[in-house]
Amino acid sequence: MLAAQPVKSVPFLKKRLLPPSRPQEPETVAGAIQTLELADTPDAGKMLETLAARGAGPAVKQRATAALSRLKAREVKVQPLEPGDRAP
Hints:
Layout: H1 6-17, H2 26-39, H3 42-54, H4 58-74
């Protein structure tokens, strides 16, 4: 449900994960990180960066760092065509 509305997912997850007010189940945190990755919005990226830097525990930091790496790998580098060039 949250991935379908990425704009709403980030504030919702931010309230629940930052700062860690109570211990989170690993599955809950993993699902939140996956949702942020799928949302792929600038705010979701900032949230993942925050979790990677100061998440609650090494597992959270590792998962957030991995999600950021996957997002970066998916970035499409588009170069404009020069006049007279044809698309591949």
